[in-house]
């Protein structure tokens, strides 16, 4: 029986620095947007401000998750705190979904009784938001694929930039046509835009917490590849899961023929998993053919 330890730390210092920059910009603009929404009577601005509030909270959670993730394993948490980033992403997704439904409800109420909106002020605030969010996109874009945590932060800023564009367009429509109900229509659009993207993040986070097989791993193909190793006659208790974003783990029992070299079987399996499936943290138990029969009840 052997295992390889291959948990690689992420570039957390760089990620923290970038998240801090975007968090400060987001918070400053959030205050301005709330004030602008109240002054101009624009639900679209207030809806976006609600989204920005969750963004600020999400960015703060992302920072805390990275900080906790850097803590070393202890006697009770032998894997360390890597799952902190998944919990942060999950919390962020749930809050965004709640905010989205609230926006949809408020949009419906405003559509029935649309108030007059100060379009010029509304557009000025939205243009400022577009500049802030565009800067945030540039800061986070390169690292958006590094983890679910960074991906969540990036998508939040990206969606804010798109809603800023939509708010500017709505302001122009109201200014040119006087159709103030477009403010409510846009707010509903913001809520509907957020939901499917947030659902994907929620599903990915839950899958990690449930220790589901990572989406990029074909478990059937892996089983076939392991069975094709010279000397292996069967395999059981094959498990693949993610500890956190980009850190996949695997455990299994390999049953080999009595005349096979158990250590060579183990080395071949480890090499296969590392080079074909990019899994370096594995726990593999080798068993001689026939031994598994004594464990039938324990290992179905």
Which structural traits does this protein have?
single chain; 300 residues; alpha+beta; Alpha-lytic protease prodomain-like; Alpha-Beta Plaits; 2 domains; four-stranded mixed β-sheet; 11% strand; disordered N terminus; zinc ion transmembrane transporter activity; zinc transport
Brief account:
It is a multi-pass membrane protein. The protein is α+β, with helices and mostly antiparallel strands. The chain has 8 helices and 4 strands, in the order E-H-H-H-H-H-H-H-E-E-H-E.
Task: Please state the structural category.
Answer: alpha+beta
Q: Remind me, CATH topology of the largest domain?
A: Alpha-lytic protease prodomain-like
Let me know the CATH homologous superfamily of the largest domain: Cation efflux protein transmembrane domain
Task: List low-confidence stretches.
Answer: 1-10
Describe the structure in your own words.
This protein is α+β, with helices and mostly antiparallel strands and 300 residues long. It has 2 domains: 2-209, Alpha-lytic protease prodomain-like, CATH 1.20.1510; 219-295, Alpha-Beta Plaits, CATH 3.30.70. It has 8 helices and 4 strands. Strands 1-4-3-2 form a 4-stranded mixed sheet, with helices on one face. α8 (262-277) links the parallel β3 (247-256) and β4 (281-288). α2 (43-69) packs antiparallel against α3. The radius of gyration is 25 Å and the shape is elongated. The two termini are 19 Å apart. The model is unreliable at 1-10 (pLDDT under 50). It comes from Niabella ginsenosidivorans. Belongs to the cation diffusion facilitator (CDF) transporter (TC 2.A.4) family. SLC30A subfamily. This is Cation transporter.
